[in-house]
Amino acid sequence: MCITIQDGQGAPYFLDKINVRFLTDFSIEKHRALSGSDVDSLVKTCVATSANAESADPSFISSNGVAIEAAASDDINSWAPWYTLFRQQWVGDMHPSEHETFMHPVACLLVASGSEADPIGALRALQTNAAVQRVLACGDGGTKMLFYYVLLHDGRDTAAVQTIDLQFDQVRKTFGQNSALLKINTHADQSSAADTGERIKISSIWSSDISATRPLAAQPERSYGEMLTMRDVAALRDAVKQMMVRSVVPHMQYVIRVLSDQTASERRGITGRLFSVGRRYLNTTSKAETTYVGSDGETYYRHKSPEAMLRRLADCSFMLKDYRFAQSVYQIARRDFQSEKAWLCYAGAQEMIGVCKLLWEVQTTKAEFDSIFEDAVLTYLHKTRSTRQFLAVRCIVVYYELLKHLRLYAFAPGALLRGPGFSASLTALLNEQAAYSFLKAAPRPNVRKFAFYVVLASQSYQRAQMTDLASRCLRMVRVSLNSRPREQARADGDDEKSHHDGVAADIKGPTRASFDEKAALSPQSADGANISTKGSGGGGVTAKTKWAAIDSYINHELGRQSMTAHNFDEAFQYFMALMGDEKTPAKLQSKYLQELLQLYLESSDKPTRDDQSGGSSKQTSYIELSIPSIDPQLVRIIMSPELEGEDAMLEWQVDGSSPSKVGDGCGVQAPRCCSVGEAVAVLLVVSNPLTVGVTLSNLTLECSFEAAVRGSDSAAAVADDGSALDVSIVPTVILEGEQTTMVTVQIIPRRAGSVSILGATYLLCDILPTFKSLVLPGRRMNDTKEQRVGVVHTPDTTLGFSVSADLPRLEIALDDLPDTLMSGSMHRACLRVSNSGSLACHSVALWVSHPSFVGIRPPRLCSEEKDEDEDAGMYVPLSDVKKHERIPVQNVLRDYSTFVLVGSQTNTPGSPGDDSSSAQCLEPLQSLGPGESFSVAVWIRGDRVGAHTLSLCVGASRHAGQGLAATMRSRRFEVDLVVTPSLRVNAFVRPSARNPRERLLGVEVENMQADVSVQLVQTTFSSGFYELASVSGSSSSSEPGVAVVGPRQSVSLVYRARPHDAAAAAAAAAPESGVAPEMFAVRALRQFIYSNEKPTSTPAPIGLVYSNHVFGGQGVDCTHRSLQSYVARSQAHRRRNVLRATYPLVPDKHHAAVFPLFESFGIDFVLFWSEAGGAAGQPPRTGHHSISGIDLGVPHDYLVEALNPPTEGAARAWMADTMHDREALIQSIVGRSETALRSERPLDVLICVSTPQPSGTAANAELYVADVAISVYNHSWRHAYQFTLDLLSPHALSQFAAEGARLVDGGGGAGSRAPWSWVGETRHSSSVEPHGQTVVHARLSCYAPGMIDVAVWRLQASASVSPLAMFNSKSADCVLFPTQPHFVNVGAAAT
After folding, report:
1. CA distance to 7, 66, 444, 805, per residue, from 70 (Å)
2. What pLDDT, on a 0 to 100 scale, did the predictor assign at position 269?
3. 1256 contacts: CB under 8 Å, gap ≥ 6
4. In what order do the strands lie in the sheet with 146-154?
5. For residue 759, what are the CA distances in angstroms to 299, 520, 800?
6. What residues have CB less than 8 Å from 285, skipping those under 6 apart?
7. Banded model confidence at residue 506, pLDDT cuts 50, 70, 90
8. What's the CA gap between 453 and 477, in Å, rounded?
9. 1302-1306-1311 Cα angle (round to 5)
10. How many CA atoms within 13 Å lie on the side-chain side of 389?
11. How far apart are CA 828 and CA 818, in angstroms?
12. HEC assignment per residue over 944-987
């Protein structure tokens, strides 16, 4: 139905979907006051009518929490169907009121039958009926009520078919157009099955309408419309439509026009306001003519008063959906009602203003309509003479339904909470709807506020004695607290926890039985919702939501309700969940704990417990409880706890790197291993989250054992009859409030196999048998699609270990370890290894993290006679110390961090394959039998000042010949060492002015101690080419100022370094390939860069020249094995660090085959010292400091030659990654050569001038002539040089200033006191061999006596290199000028 009508401003609009209500009687009744019991009875009736809907959870509640998508899409009315019934019944009970005209009739329908003899008389009689007159007496504001006349014709009356049309014409002539003829028929045959089905369909039309308007009303005994056909129903609908279109709606428009004209002055803006004020204060009409006071004390307006007409005008406009015009009229009427203090009328007008705003102005005034409805509700409740609770609730319900219709759920909670609190059930109903509104809020639901208001609803339902709905609300809260976004759930480890619960639920064993539904590890209540029994330590509801107080309240209330319902199983689970909240006050925690224990004792189906005294075969049923907390991630398994250090299966490396734990390549470590009969300690960190104390009795571990099958690598699971494992029992553990303690449980395996720790069992407070699962999920699998979609974990082996009969069992101890050392001092510790197993051990190795700190001596069996200290022979008399000594030593850059103590040493990292390396390696034992033990002297030296943590690892294996590249059972020790400063030693190098081939090496020694003097014992220098001697030339102890360094004092020592004769001769006799260590590095590095086959050979031994300078009567034997071992360790440590920093692209495993340990031209320095005096009764402390790799400044950037490709043996093809690495290595070597900090001269010039002799007179002036011998020295060991020596004129030096010539006093020979010049040939060309010398002869002449500077020359040199070489030393071509003057005194007796 669509009708075109005009609004209050005359603009046309369409009107459709009008609801029509027919009443058989009309009377204005007063709304009686409601009591809480009446509303409670109504709500209970609505719940009872909802078909047990209170026992089912809403559709958005799932096992994982609140389904956000379902909550956003589902109909909110389906979540609480009893509220829908309550709303329909509450609105349906609304009666006509004097302050509004919504329920007042707008038309009167008079119906007369066509069978009447006088239908017109019958209709007129109906007009004068008492009921109709009572309606007219109520008045309609001065407007006439519409009478609509209907002539009803019965189709069974066939005789009146001809006359019914004539009768209707007479009715229309008499009563006008407001009349209609309605023809309805009846069935001729009522027995037809089709007719029966049609009657049922027709009857449902009336029954559904009755259920919608009066849902709680009893259905009538008779069925309405059962004698009608579908055609009659259609005729009825058409008749009503015609009545509304032709009569009722036009009549209402007429009423609106009349009322609009009558109230025009009231609605005329400021004029209307002035008119109202004037009428109120100047009108002579008494107030009683327009208003009256009802029986309830409220002020009402008479029907002909302007205020009542305004209200009727607004209501009629509202019923015709002209909301904008109606709102403006309501606002005018509200102003008058407020001024007259007619609060009931004011509240009604205010309510309708809010409704109009929501229906047409909602997009512009979202904040205004809420305050309007709030004002209306408060006026209904507090300003009216008698509280209008019914109207207030109606206003709230209408407002809430409009908000739902417009999906403005953000305003709904505030609107619902304004309801009156006279009824607990009504409050619960409104709070529940407010909670649902939070789930519908945009942009995302607010789950916490939903839970809070559901708790409020539960409390109200509990007060109204509606326990089913109260439990339903609490269950929703429990589930909603678990609802979080997926990302946050993953971060908190929900997937792992669910897997952990699933694994724990599958644990079965001989000491574990099912506890029916109550002892299930994942307990469920009767309604299917999971009841978490885990607290903060277990990751349950409390840990997830961080809303512990509400969680405890919910668990306690559900537990009490379950106890009231005698559901002890469910109550027990709820009380167990209470134990997980550590924030509960102490009194409540104590109460909850007592209630839990009492409930366990009183429950009829409580589990039995083993008789700990023995003799009982009953099994114990354990309950998983959250107290105390035992974190599986903090559980530690320690093998042989009586020993120090950490036991593990480690994989030892050939390259000497730190032994690593064995894993599967995916970050999962292999389980620990122990031997049969070895004690294993399991450390549990037990914490009490409560603030009250608890007691644990008979705490032990529950383990599973799988026996190993002989002859197979697999293991077969067998039932443990108690003979495989001996597990200790801790009698009592007392935990105070919030106390954390460590409990140790010992396991002794008796058979080979594998052991897994499943959990801990104990008696809580000597009553409740409890099981704490310690099973952890393994690594998350992500290989297949199913694993990526689901949550699949590998079996975890963290809390497990294997038992092997072939595993060595050693007792390892480190004795006399120091805590503090002085730098350079040494301390002797002892490593003791004993075989406590039943089988021999054929391989034992030692690894140290700081080789420069630790020195190892050969192992000695404890059964052998004690040998003298091998380090005692290192100190010898002064006469036995040689000043210079050349000794051949191994030049292999081996790893000094790994030592073989028992077994073969052929696989020692970096050691050569021949027997010549035995001088630097230990002499290991062949085997270690059962009951045997050996000791190793471990010297710990303070190598560097500071705090250090030294790691020592001892590995053992029963198998012989496997070398170090194997997996061995190992024990790691950590030693914390603090090194305090003793001496500070610095070295510096200077060129010698006397001889270009010599260098001066200065050593500065500073005593850093405040109260101890230091006696210098000896200085030892080792080099492959140079020998060093003290500049003073004294080696006796007759120099106390040099030999003793006082506190906070320093001393300087100067030594002259020159080539050793034997070393120089060996270098000169070397083949054309050059010096052995350097050329070995060039060839090996070239092979490493350009060949697919990496170098494997090792350098040849090098002859080191040891230069000793002794300060006292006792010195140090430089050939002693301990000293050589220390020098090699220090040099290897320094060398490896330099190579790692300089050539990071060369792996450590190739260092020994590419780089030598010693270079030919470096110097290693060792200073031996002792305390002067020492403490009484104790020997003075001794030590030594060293500086390795001192560079004398001789140019030898020889490694750049390795970049030249070989003539043969180069790889034909390279992979892309190999090419990239090769180019990067080449660029790093080239860059290092180009950016060298020091640029030394490969050639040096020494001038020797004879005594100038006068050669006669010339113009009374003498002429002095002298012979000059110019020696050109070649410092390079690699290249011969072709050079050209130009003797420059002293007056032409300024011409070579751009090339770097030394100018003196602006040039022109001003540096000389007398004029002079070169005589004869001034350009000389020659060559000089590596480490060779060439002498050039020249003459000079001077014209007068005086001092002259003859250092005026220019040397151009070019190395003899291959023209095809792409890379050469940066000193291959050079131009040299003198850097120092050379003065000659002409006329003196000597040069």
Report:
1. 42, 8, 12, 60
2. 55
3. 1262, 1263
4. 107-113, 146-154, 179-184
5. 78, 15, 11
6. none
7. very low
8. 9
9. 70
10. 14
11. 9
12. CCEEEEEEEEEEEECCCCCCCCCEEEEEEEEEEEEEECCEEEEE
Q: What is the DSSP string of 508-573?
A: -BTTB---TTTT-SS-B-TTS-B-----TTTT-HHHHHS-HHHHHHHHHHHHHHHHHTT-HHHHHH
Can you list the positions of beta strands (E) in 1036-1094? Answer: 1044-1045, 1050-1059
Percentage with pLDDT > 90 across the chain: 10
Would you call the peptide bond into 628 cis, given omega within 30 degrees of 0 as the criterion?
A: yes
Measured between alpha carbons, how far is 470 from 558 in angstroms, rounded to an integer? 9
Cβ(1080)–Cβ(1160) below 8 Å: no
Question: Over 50: is that where the pLDDT of 1035 sits?
Answer: no
Tell me the pLDDT of the chain averaged across its residues. 77
Q: What is the DSSP string of 976-1020?
A: EEEEE--EEEEEEEEE-SS-TT-EEEEEEEEE--SS--EEEEEEE
Q: How far apart are CA 1001 and CA 992, in angstroms?
A: 10
Check: CB of residue 605 under 8 Å from CB of residue 623.
no
- β-pair partners for 1059: 1026
Mean pLDDT of 562-586: 76
Q: Which residues contact 829 (CB under 8 A, 6 or more apart)?
A: 814, 815, 816, 817, 818, 937, 938, 939, 940
Tell me how crowded residue 226 is: count the other CB atoms within 10 A of its CB. 16
One-character DSSP codes across 1191-1239: E-S----GGGGGGSPPSS---S---HHHHHHHHHHHHHHHHHHHT-S--
pLDDT band at 510 (very low <50, low <70, confident <90, very high): very low
Residues contacting 1117, CB < 8 A, separation 6+: 873, 874, 875, 876, 880, 881, 1123
Higher pLDDT, 142 or 533: 142
Q: What is the DSSP string of 1111-1174?
A: -SSEEE-TT-HHHHHHHHHHHHHHHHHHHHHH-TTS-GGGHHHHSBSS-TTEEEEEEEEEESS-
DSSP-H helix ranges across 340-388: 343-360, 368-378
pLDDT for residue 157: 67
Say which residues have a Cβ less than 8 Å from residue 1230's Cβ, sequence separation at least 6.
1200, 1203, 1367
- Residue 933 burial (CB < 10 Å; 0-12/13-18/19+)? middle
Report how far residue 968's alpha carbon sits from residue 965's, in angstroms, rounded to the nearest whole number: 9
Report field, pTM of the whole predicted structure over 0.85: no
- Residue 1069: how many CB atoms within 10 A of its CB? 7
pLDDT band at 523 (very low <50, low <70, confident <90, very high): very low
Residue 221: C-alpha distances to residues 24, 93, 207, 218, 224 (Å): 19, 22, 11, 9, 9
Structure-block tokens of residue 480:
């909603």
Contacts of 1068 (CB under 8 A, 6+ apart): 1331
Which whole-number Å values give the CA distances from 205 to 44, 201, 238, 493, in the listed order?
A: 27, 7, 16, 56
- Give residues with Cβ within 8 angstroms of 860, minimum separation 6: 866, 867, 934, 935, 936
- 1381 with 1301: CB under 8 angstroms? no
pLDDT score of 445: 82
Which pLDDT value is given to residue 964?
63
Encoding tokens for residue 985?
A: 């030693």
Contact between residue 535 and residue 543 where contact means Cβ atoms under 8 Å apart:
yes
Mean pLDDT calculated for residue range 565-590: 77
Is residue 1276 exposed (0-12), middle (13-18) or buried (19+ Cβ within 10 Å)?
Answer: buried
CA 328, CA 349: separation in Å to the nearest integer? 11
Whole-number Å distance between alpha carbons of 224 and 233: 12
- Least Cα distance to 1202 among 1067, 1363, 1076, 1368 occurs for 1368
Query: Which one-letter amino acid corresponds to residue 565?
Result: A
- d(CA 697, CA 732) in angstroms, rounded, equals 5
